[in-house]
Design brief:
The complex is a heterodimer of chains A (119) and B (111).
Chain A lengths: L3 E4 L2 E4 L5 E7 L4 E9 L5 E8 L5 E2 L8 E7 L2 E6 L8 E9 L9 E3 L3 E5 L1
Parallel strand pairs in A: 2-11
Antiparallel strand pairs in A: 1-3, 3-8, 4-5, 4-9, 5-6, 7-8, 9-10, 9-11
Chain B lengths: L2 E4 L4 E4 L4 E3 L1 E4 L5 E7 L5 E7 L5 E4 L2 E4 L9 E3 L8 E8 L6 E2 L3 E6 L1
Parallel strand pairs in B: 2-12
Antiparallel strand pairs in B: 1-4, 3-9, 5-6, 5-10, 7-8, 8-9, 10-11, 10-12
The chains are: A mainly beta (119), B mainly beta (111).
């Protein structure tokens, strides 16, 4: 149990286009989903926290108009990179917390990541 | 605020060698502590966890003990395999906290 999927697993796009990345909790309902960005050989940087039915909370320095997050249901959150540029190329990882509270320490379950390359 | 300091890599070992990756933390209250592993091109997988002082997390031959007195959660394995080659992240979290990650340690195990 506690599987999180991401789609697509990799995407290549042209500069100036928008790209949508989906994050789904497959066998549980997620109260909260998180979006991280990871640069090569570096740690994960939290971009935003997404709660179902409410606006996402963005970390300092993350442009909310550039990285649009929509948490449409308890099993789906999307990250849209708008007007993508080469510097947006990165590995984007989502995670989700189980609504049922079966994890007493609010464990996050991670998706496999999406590799974005902007040409 | 919360922070995690992790041993810098990369670490290169021969198969069957002993592994230690150091991790110390700074946090208020009583965080939970985690080790995550990331294989090339993949997302993070939880390797082991400990939720209170003196707890020992273990999985796949890896162990880490939550030491509150030294604010540490060092990862150990007695005999590494080539398949253990990955990046290892120490993290703290739990309850209402966000996950705070260390910088990651690249481990390469040579046959």
């Amino acid at each position: 149990g506690a599987v999180v999927s991401q789609h697509p697993s990799w995407v290549i796009c042209k500069s100036g286009t928008s790209v949508k990345i989906e994050c789904r909790s497959l066998d549980f309902q997620a109260t909260t989903m998180f979006w991280y960005r990871q640069f090569p050989k570096q740690s994960l940087m939290l971009m935003a926290t997404s709660n179902e039915g409410s606006k996402a909370t963005y970390e300092q320095g993350v442009e909310k108009d550039k990285f649009l997050i929509n948490h449409a249901s308890l099993t789906l959150s999307t990250l849209t990179v708008t007007s993508a540029h080469p510097e947006d190329s990165s590995f984007y990882i989502c995670s989700a917390r189980d609504r049922s509270g079966r994890s007493s320490y609010n464990e996050q379950f991670f998706g496999p990541g999406t590799r974005l390359t902007v040409l | 605020g919360d922070s995690v300091t992790q041993m810098e890599g990369p670490v290169t070992l021969s198969e069957e060698a002993f592994l230690t990756i150091n991790c110390t933390y700074t946090a208020t209250g009583y965080p939970s502590l985690f080790w995550y592993v990331q294989y090339p091109g993949e997302g993070l997988q939880l390797l082991l966890k400990a939720t209170k002082a003196d707890d020992k997390g273990s999985n796949k031959g890896f162990e880490a003990t939550y030491r509150k007195e030294t604010t540490s959660f060092h990862l150990e394995k007695g005999s590494v395999q080539v398949s253990d080659s990955a990046v290892y992240f120490c993290a703290l979290g739990g309850s209402a906290r966000q996950l705070t990650f260390g910088s990651g340690t690249q481990l390469t195990v040579l046959p």
